Amino acid sequence: MTENEIANKIIGLAIEVHRALGPGLLESAYKECLYFKIIQYGMIAEKEKPMPLFFEDVKLECGYRIDILTEKKVVIETKSVEALNDIHLAQILTYMKLGNYKLGLLINFNVVLLKNGIKRVVNGL
Known about the structure:
Elements: H1 3-21, H2 27-41, E1 45-50, E2 53-55, E3 58-60, E4 65-70, E5 74-79, H3 86-99, E6 103-108, E7 118-122
Parallel strand pairs: 5-6
Antiparallel strand pairs: 1-4, 2-3, 4-5, 6-7
Helix pairs in contact: 1-2
C-alpha cells in the first residue's frame, strides 16, 4: 500500500472511532481505539514507537514517541484539544524528520465533525 492509500484507510477508521465515541474524551482513549481498529483491519501498527534523537553522532533517548506508526510509513499523532496549533504541527514534523517518513496525519478528535480535525502533513525530505 502507498502512503496515500494507508492514510485514506486510517482516516476512514478514525471517522468510525469518532462516530462511536464523539468528542470530549482523553487523547489516550482515541489513540487506543484507533490503534485497535487499525490492527483489526489487518495493517501493521506500532503504538508509542520510540524515536531517538541523533546529536553529534550520539544516539540520545529523549522520550520522543510516535502515537501510532502504520505500515512503517505513516505517522499518526492523535490529539483531543480545543484546536490544533503550530506546536502540534511542529511535533509531528519532528517525528517525521527523525524517522524519515513522508506522510503524517495529525488528528484532533475533539471536534464535532472529524474532517475538520484532520491535517495531512507531508515531509519534503
